[in-house]
Design brief:
35% helix; alpha/beta; five-stranded mixed β-sheet; disordered N terminus; D-Maltodextrin-Binding Protein, domain 2; 12 strands; 20% strand; globular; 285 residues
């Protein structure tokens, strides 16, 4: 059955994550009822996948209306992890995704043998160091617990942030974009790093001294960037919209790029997402 259909098992699992009460018999019924499906070359419908929160809001509040004015039907699929959106894109279950920075996209695609391409930057909430049991950087103490993302690329990003704060030093012989907790060379405060799924970091703050939280999850949890004790300064981790490499020259992809770079979207994003990093191409907007 799975040979006939272009639906991803992982994509279906993403739906299960969002609907945890779905019973097994109903799931089996849904699986047997799926039609044979192939990409519509006329492209009347564009399916966009994002993580929950700000990137989904960008679609429903601005990108979707823009594309619908051009005559497309737009469907949004929201995910709660960083793996399924790329697998769903690669297998054709969605046409576009928006949730990741370029180092993650390139690393994930290389490791999984996927042909995905970044097409345009999007406004991105900066990763930041936020208070947990301690509410100031000066309250650093021996043996404190700091929560960081568990996925490799964002963990490296968090370690770079902690190095920028001055709390640890990474091995200079290691590519910082691929660094892990095992590459910490100096840890004068004896920090205990607690690796958690990125979506769990906002809720972890009551259990740790500090937490390094991705911008989208801070925003979706109602945490203001102004509450950050330290925000990453680099543009290396601004997020991108991605498509299958085979589709990158198709007209619908250009329309998606235009939607994310229209004057209306820029005006909307600057007002709606204050404190975000905006695409470098917008610097004169």
């Amino acid at each position: 059955m799975f040979v006939k259909h272009r639906w991803s098992v992982l994509f279906l699992l993403g739906v299960i994550v969002r609907r945890p009460l779905l019973k097994l018999p109903l799931l089996l019924l849904a699986l047997t009822a799926l039609p044979s499906w192939a990409i519509d070359h006329d492209k009347q419908e564009i399916v966009i996948g994002t993580t929950v929160g700000d990137f989904a809001d960008m679609v429903t509040e601005s990108v979707q209306p823009y594309l619908e004015q051009l005559g497309y039907k737009v469907k949004l699929v929201e995910f709660t992890d960083y793996v399924i959106p790329n697998m769903a894109l690669a297998e054709g279950a969605i046409d576009v995704n928006c949730f990741q920075h370029k180092p993650y996209l390139e690393s994930f695609s290389q490791d999984r043998g996927l042909e995905l391409s970044a097409i345009t930057q999007v406004p991105t909430g900066p990763m930041g160091l936020y208070a947990g049991k301690q509410d100031a950087l000066a309250k650093v103490k021996k043996g404190m617990r700091v929560a960081i993302p568990s996925d490799p690329t964002n963990q490296a990003r968090a370690l770079i942030l902690l190095e920028d704060v001055g709390w640890l030093t990474l091995n200079p012989n290691v590519d910082p974009l691929r660094a892990s907790e095992f590459d910490v060379q100096e840890n004068p405060h004896g920090i205990k790093l607690v690796s958690l799924e990125a979506a769990q970091l906002p809720r972890s703050r009551q259990d740790v001294d500090f937490a390094v939280i991705n911008g989208n999850y801070a925003a979706s949890s109602g945490i203001a960037f102004s509450d950050g004790l330290f925000l990453e300064p680099s543009y290396d981790f601004i997020n991108w919209v991605a498509v299958r490499s085979a589709d990158k020259d198709r007209p619908f992809v250009q329309d998606v790029m235009d939607a994310y770079n229209s004057d209306d979207f820029k005006d909307y994003a600057v007002k709606r997402f204050e404190g975000y990093k905006y695409p470098e191409s917008w610097e004169h907007h």
